[in-house]
TrEMBL record:
Coiled coil: none annotated. A motif ('KMSKS' region) lies at residues 197-201. It comes from the Bacteria. PROSITE patterns: AA_TRNA_LIGASE_I (PS00178). Catalyzes the attachment of tryptophan to tRNA(Trp). Pfam families: tRNA-synt_1b (PF00579). The lineage of its organism: Bacteria, Bacillati, Actinomycetota, Actinomycetes, Kitasatosporales. InterPro entries: aa-tRNA-synth_I_CS, aa-tRNA-synth_Ic, Rossmann-like_a/b/a_fold, Trp-tRNA-ligase, Trp-tRNA-ligase_bac-type, Trp-tRNA_synthetase. It catalyses: tRNA(Trp) + L-tryptophan + ATP = L-tryptophyl-tRNA(Trp) + AMP + diphosphate + H(+). Belongs to the class-I aminoacyl-tRNA synthetase family. This is Tryptophan--tRNA ligase. A motif ('HIGH' region) lies at residues 12-20. It comes from Streptomyces durbertensis. The gene is trpS. Signal peptide: none annotated. It is found in: Cytoplasm.
Length: 353
């Protein structure tokens, strides 16, 4: 492992699923051996679209599930620091300071923000959502991360962070590394209903924590080729969600090739294709389930990992905020006022009878 740092994470909105694994977790499992890894539980970011009392009340449970899912998927607690974003108030201070280094028109050009507002049913853009990339910059720079692994849809967010880091360094002196994007050229995993990507809110998911029977039921209900009404009708493999999952999770490529050939020729039914997919996904999830069971047996372990990681991260962030305030001159400004106030107080004490 180098002395370079990586930051990434998720919003605590529920359990992780196969889409998360394909889109980000598999990459994190590999990168944790190359970088000092910080994994943020981004509950302040969650507030931009989910901010009811009921949403907030679920944060601790969802945070445990997220961490447990990550550990089960292969993240090692000795190599990664998990932390709860809202428990580090200094991040909000950095967010405030960074807000002045980026313009509203620049943020309005971030394409994913409008998509996020639309997907969450917002008719107008909340101020917090417009500033999402600025808070994200505070997250990344608060631990002086050197790299940020992201998918294509988040490139624009991290570019704002890079601009803020360069702007700060130009104005106040070299303080932050300008983080690099680590490309995550992974495909988006289509949902089990074939309608867009896998999403908890839609319910078209297979969770990392699903039992083998849950997997079989979800796979049995998967969308396939709608034009194929019988097993002897030649079917389409391209764009077929069942085969997309075979490609992603089946560890037997010869079996996949055989199924594709027979499917195209109308010589295999959907039931067999799905049965073999369920078996393949369960083979993939078996070691995940074993690790999950091992971590679950240790009562309170996940809570300890989150709390210890948060406390460690906060110490790091406090030092960074001190450096930022010093670089900007904010520390000097208050110290001047404090020294003059102290001299005035002592002067009054000497002249008071």
């Amino acid at each position: 492992m180098t002395d370079q740092r990586m930051l990434t994470g998720d919003r605590p909105t529920g359990k992780l699923h196969l889409g998360h694994y394909v889109g980000s977790i598999a990459n994190r499992v590999q990168l944790q051996h190359k970088y000092e890894t910080f994994l943020i539980i981004a509950d302040l970011h969650m507030l931009t679209t989910k901010n009811t009392r009921e949403d907030i009340a679920k944060v601790s449970t969802n945070a445990r599930d997220m961490v447990l899912d990550s550990l089960a998927a292969g993240i090692e607690p000795t190599r990664a620091t998990f932390y709860l974003q809202s428990a580090i108030p200094e991040v909000s201070e950095l967010n405030t300071l960074f807000q002045n280094l980026v313009t509203v028109p620049r943020l309005e050009r971030v394409p994913s923000l409008k998509d996020m507002a639309r997907d969450s049913g917002k008719e107008e853009m909340p101020y917090g959502l417009l500033g999402y990339p600025v808070l994200q910059a505070a997250d990344i720079l608060c631990v002086k991360a050197h790299v940020v692994p992201v998918g294509k849809d988040n490139h624009a967010h991290v570019e704002v962070t890079r601009e803020i880091a360069r702007r700060f360094n130009h104005l106040y002196g070299e303080t932050f590394p300008v983080p690099e994007l680590v490309e995550s050229e992974v495909p988006t995993l289509v949902g089990t209903d074939g309608q867009g990507k896998m999403s908890k809110s839609v319910g078209n998911v297979i969770y990392l924590s699903d039992s083998s029977e849950d997997v079989r039921k979800r796979v049995a209900g998967m969308y396939t080729d709608p034009n194929r009404v019988r097993a002897d009708v030649p079917g389409t493999v391209e764009g077929n969600p069942v085969f997309a999952y075979h490609d992603a999770f089946n560890d037997n490529p010869a079996e996949v090739a055989d199924l594709k050939e027979r499917y195209r020729a109308g010589k295999v039914g959907d039931v067999e294709v799905k049965d073999k997919l369920a078996a393949a996904i369960n083979r993939f999830l078996d070691p995940v389930r074993e690790r999950r069971a091992r971590y679950e047996e240790q009562s309170g372990l996940v809570d300890e990992i989150i709390v210890e990681g948060t406390e460690r991260t906060r110490r790091e962030v406090q030092q960074v905020v001190f450096e930022v305030r010093k670089a900007m001159g904010l520390t000097a400004a208050y110290n001047q006022l404090r020294r003059k106030a102290e001299r005035a107080r002592k002067s009054r004490e000497r002249t008071t009878p």
